[in-house]
From TrEMBL:
InterPro entries: Metalloenz_LuxS/M16 (IPR011249), MPP/UQCRC_Complex (IPR050361), Pept_M16_N (IPR011765), Pept_M16_Zn_BS (IPR001431), Peptidase_M16_C (IPR007863). This is Peptidase M16. Residues 169-345 form the Peptidase M16 C-terminal domain. It holds the Pfam family Peptidase_M16. One of its GO terms (biological process) is proteolysis. It comes from Candidatus Woesebacteria bacterium RIFOXYA1_FULL_48_16. Transmembrane segments: none annotated. Belongs to the peptidase M16 family. Residues 13-160 form the Peptidase M16 N-terminal domain. GO terms for molecular function: metal ion binding; metalloendopeptidase activity.
């Protein structure tokens, strides 16, 4: 998959992925800031600002006017906030690329931030917070990261708290935008039925007026590992099902062995024939859903296994899950050549399928451009995965699956966490 990278005069980077056979295209604006960049007092402002961009802009003063213009070209638009980035996108027919640029740039660069809209949206976000609280499958990830990353910006919930959200004022949004919304700290990605010249012309027209930063953009505080032993966090809640994530601290985005760790995670819980799915669900009937994945930030990450289980059998589920990790690391359950090949093809297949969506193509290239020294194409990543050996996977398992890197987060109707702490010894 070919791509081109250019930089506008104001410092804004532009990545174009031209796919002439497609009739659609996705335009995405990225800002290299998220919840880990926030001060405690305004926790959740990155996510709140994401909402406010849709509430009215200079050319289109109301949310309805923005929505009507996107609907008029049959497009879709949305945004997302992570702990270290925020993005905004419009996906539409390639023939309507100019309109997509115009609407998206106007929204992101010229939001009105009306005080009455801010006050109204506070109620919306409070209900969103409560929705996540009542949805353990989504909430468990936040509980896990609170445990793994502690009282650091990475340990805070992206959405903030009811207290911080309801305390935000217009001036807070203005200061935050002035601090992070600069071309040097932003990125434009466009993928689909477009060509480079067309994209650069539209980018210059609609985003070229962004002014350079008056000073260097602030960088997040580096995460420093303080953990010395296995940790447990219990979020007690009366539910018919218990949810947990059992994970081990690992490295950040720039780690050279990340493809090896991806294969390791795939072997453990990457599909319906993986070790954990076979043992936890198929053989023992302990869970409907069980999966292992790798989460990475700029300076840290983790390999975590999620499962939703019967509240009365959670002890068994945790023991089995942990045992599968240690058996792989110790060599008690060797990796066969067949199993290694299957894990590799699982990763490559899922990546290939995701890259059939222009929105996901933008994610693929933006994540690398924002945080890595250079961009690798999907083909290069496929080759890297093919090179992974059994010995390398076992070495990673031995290095990562250690008690002093272990964290267990649980949501369920339990009184005290001590019973679960004992399971980890």
């Amino acid at each position: 998959m070919r791509f081109s990278k250019n930089t506008l005069k104001n410092g804004l980077r532009v990545i174009t992925v031209s796919l002439p056979n497609l009739e659609s295209a996705t335009v995405t604006v990225w800002v290299k800031t998220g919840s880990r960049m926030e001060e405690n007092r305004v926790a959740g402002i990155s996510h709140f600002l994401e909402h406010m961009v849709f509430k009215g802009s200079k050319k289109r003063p109301t949310a309805k006017e923005i929505a009507e213009e996107v609907d008029a070209i049959g497009g879709e638009f949305n945004a997302a906030t992570n702990k270290d980035w925020t993005n905004f996108y419009i996906k539409a027919r390639a023939g309507n690329l100019s309109t997509a640029f115009d609407v998206l740039a106007d929204m992101v660069l010229n939001p009105i931030l009306a005080e009455e809209e801010i006050e109204r949206e506070k109620g919306v976000i409070v209900e969103e917070i409560r929705m996540y609280e009542d949805t353990p499958m989504f909430r468990i990830g936040d509980v896990y990261e609170q445990l793994a990353f502690g009282k650091t910006p990475l340990g805070r919930d992206i959405i903030g708290s009811e207290k911080t959200v309801t305390g935000l004022k217009k001036d807070d949004f203005v200061r935050y935008r002035n601090k992070y919304y600069y071309p040097e700290n932003m990125l434009l990605t466009v993928a689909g039925g477009v060509d480079e010249k067309q994209v650069l012309a539209l980018a210059g027209q609609h985003l070229g007026q962004l002014k350079k930063a008056a000073r260097s953009v602030s960088q997040p505080l580096a995460f420093k590992k303080q953990q010395k032993k296995a940790q447990v966090k219990l979020h007690s809640k009366k539910k018919e099902q218990a949810h947990f994530i059992l994970g081990f601290l690992a490295e950040g985005r720039k780690y050279k062995g990340k493809l090896i760790q991806a294969v390791l995670a795939s072997i453990l819980g990457g599909g319906m024939s993986s070790r954990l799915f076979s043992e936890v669900r198929e053989r023992r009937g302990l869970a409907y859903s069980v999966r292992t994945s790798v989460e990475r930030y700029e300076d840290t990450g983790y390999i975590g296994t999620y499962a939703g289980v019967d509240v009365a059998r959670i002890d068994e589920a945790i023991k089995v899950t942990l045992n599968e990790h240690y058996k792989l690391a110790s060599g008690e359950a060797p990796i066969s050549a067949k199993e290694l090949k299957k894990a590799k093809e699982y990763i490559k297949g899922h990546l290939a399928l995701s890259l059939e969506d222009t929105k996901d193509i933008n994610y693929f290239f933006a994540d690398q451009e924002l945080y890595l020294p250079r961009i690798e194409t999907p083909e290069a990543i496929f080759k890297g995965i093919d090179k992974v050996t059994i010995e390398e996977v076992i070495a990673e398992a031995k290095k990562i699956f250690r008690p002093e890197k272990l964290n267990l987060a649980i949501i369920g109707p339990y009184g005290r966490p001590e019973r679960f702490q004992r399971l980890l010894k």
